[in-house]
Specification:
Shape: globular
Mean pLDDT: 94
Largest sheet: 8 strands, mixed
Distance between the termini: 23 Å
Radius of gyration: 24 Å
Helix content: 25-40%
Strand content: 15-25%
Structural class: alpha+beta
Length: 583
């Protein structure tokens, strides 16, 4: 990407920086309002981190929840409990007010076909206000064909999270994949999915079926394309511009489309968070003071959002009690020496797997959400140079479920061992020696856990004691979907370190998602949505889709209101939409 800027000037009503769920939501609604919208993204692909995500939205007040009796009061109670001292009732109220209207727009006007699952429990089911369904929804599968000429422009899946290139859909699809080595029917189902994927990739460079976050972005980007919204990739914004009146009205571009953009209604920053930026991480992430103790799978989160707003007074709001949505990861290099990362979002809630610290002891409930487990992992490693732990399993669990990226029987384990992802030992003592934990402590830990697992209860951490725990486990395993003894050699271990799914600390914004300067005043014409902005949940992670839900809702709000805000600044004069883009 060239750093040079040409003399070309582009004109539009709204400039959106970033092409994930937040940015495209704003673009779609603004375009529907009759505005001329331009989307730019520094990455070579469209879709951002949303395209590699699970694609869920946590949106209390949706039609399913209302039909099931969910109330505004329950949702507010639950969010407040998770946010603690970081609770912002005005921001939460704005979010909940917008949910029904925003979802109605996406379903009816943007061809986003949601799936409302029978059960998708909140992550902290023991907290007042939690519910086992009605707040989290996902999106139906999509075909890449709907993207037309943009079919190959969507960010590919995180390959380590696929099964030989196919991304199982969260829900019955992935449950069937987990049973493929135990059921002929499931095996044949998986085989059909894989063969179809391989044939389509061979013939058309990428499979047509899109699932999870890739399906969500496929649908949204297809709608954007149908609406005629230009979406430029490999195009980096290096500077936000203001006019003589101090109103943000454009930006400087470099890369594939260099020049200046004049955006009459304003600029929307949706360029992600800062977990990929060493400078900001060391300032905000307490466990990463040197910048080498955190590993993110996010796409494009190098702090651009903050660095673009900072010259105009934008400040980083670090009030959330957790600065990011945490997710333990494993990092390694493949046989070609390429860096690889695997986010452990579900794996160690399954029967027969536990997590231990450097002392060989359990330190948290493995059936916690990835975020809440991450909180405990950071606490456990406080004062240590490195933040890490180990997932421990035996032959039975490895054979049945695998461990994250390491697939189960009938696939051999040699490759995962060779690249350093998986460590094996013929005995507990041998495994302990290979991962440098005290053997006696690890044996005690397993003995205690095994005694409880045989009875189907976890006296120490209460793993497997609520609906969310069970949802993360194997619902067909008895007596407890989350517990099984670890007692059959060989034994296996996978190292886990700290990662994230996006930052919770972010640009300070007001209820209109306008960037707020250090003076407390809004920066006119400048907006931030998604992980570019501070999280509405105050550091808590309420359930599936805690990042994407607010991203789409507040993105919708900005797209809906941006022209009205511009009219206010102009003294109520109506702005004419649909300018020529290039001059």
């Amino acid at each position: 990407m060239s750093d040079k800027t040409s003399d070309t000037t582009y004109e539009c009503d709204v400039l959106v920086i970033g092409s994930g769920a937040a940015g495209i939501s704003a673009a779609l609604k603004a375009k529907q309002q009759g505005l001329d919208v331009l989307v730019v993204d520094k990455e070579p692909y469209l879709g951002g981190t949303t395209a590699i995500s699970g694609g869920w939205l946590w949106v209390p007040g949706n039609k399913q929840g209302v039909a099931e009796g969910d109330t505004r009061e329950e949702a507010e109670t639950y969010i407040k409990a998770l946010a603690g001292d970081s609770h912002d009732p005005a921001a939460v109220a704005a979010f909940l007010d917008l949910v029904p209207e925003a979802l109605d727009f996406f379903e009816n006007d943007a061809d986003v076909r949601f799936h409302y699952p029978e059960m998708a429990p909140d992550y902290q089911m023991d907290t007042p206000g939690a519910r086992k369904s009605g707040r989290a929804l996902t999106v139906q599968k999509a075909s890449g064909r709907m993207l037309k000429r943009n079919r190959l422009r969507v960010q590919p899946y995180l390959y380590t999270y696929t099964v030989f290139g196919y991304m199982p859909e969260i829900g019955p699809d992935i449950a069937t994949f987990l049973k493929a080595n135990r059921s002929l029917k499931a095996f044949l189902y998986v085989l059909r999915r894989l063969v179809t994927t391989w044939v389509e990739r061979t013939l058309f460079r990428r499979a047509f079926t899109r699932t999870n976050g890739n399906a969500l972005m496929t649908r949204m980007l297809a709608s954007a394309g149908d609406m005629g919204i230009p979406m430029w990739t490999d195009t980096k914004v290096t500077e936000i511009l203001k006019n003589d009146a101090g109103v943000v009205d454009g930006a400087v571009l470099t890369g594939a489309h260099s020049g200046r953009v004049r955006a009459g209604c304003g600029v929307v920053i949706a360029a992600g968070g800062f977990s990929g930026d060493t400078r900001l991480r060391t300032q905000v992430f307490g466990h990463d003071p040197r910048g080498d103790n955190h590993f993110t799978p996010t796409i494009g989160h190098q702090g651009d959002s903050y660095y673009l707003a900072e010259p105009h007074g934008g400040v980083l709001d670090t009030r959330p009690h957790q600065p990011a949505s945490w997710g333990p990861v494993t990092v390694w290099k493949n046989l070609r020496g390429q860096d690889r990362i695997f986010p452990h979002l579900r794996a160690f809630g399954l029967p027969g797997l536990i997590a231990v610290n450097r002392k060989g002891e359990r330190f948290a409930n493995e059936s916690f959400s990835y975020h809440d487990f991450g909180v405990e992992m950071i606490k456990e490693n406080a004062g240590e140079r490195d933040t890490f732990g180990w997932i421990i399993a035996d032959k039975k669990a490895m054979h049945t479920y695998g461990i994250g990226y390491a697939k189960p029987w009938p696939l051999p384990t040699w490759y995962y061992k060779k690249v350093g992802y998986l460590v094996a030992g013929s005995s507990i003592e041998e495994l302990a020696a290979r991962i440098d934990v005290p053997a006696a402590a690890l044996k005690r830990t397993l003995a205690e856990f095994n005694a409880d697992a045989a009875l189907g209860r976890d006296r120490r951490f209460k793993r497997g004691s609520n609906w969310f725990h069970h949802f993360k486990g194997d619902m067909e395993h008895k007596p407890n979907p989350n517990l099984a003894p670890i007692d059959k050699a060989p034994y296996y271990a996978v190292r886990i370190q700290m990662g994230d799914l996006g930052t919770y600390a972010g640009l300070s914004v007001n209820r209109r998602s306008e960037v707020v300067a250090s003076t407390g005043e809004a920066v006119p014409g400048l907006y931030a949505v998604g992980t570019a902005a501070v999280s509405v949940f105050g550091g808590g992670y309420p359930g599936y889709g805690a990042n994407i839900g607010p991203a789409m809702v507040f993105g919708y709000q900005v797209g809906r209101d941006i022209a009205g805000h511009a009219a206010e600044r102009a003294g109520g004069l109506q702005r004419t939409a649909g300018r020529r883009r290039d001059r």
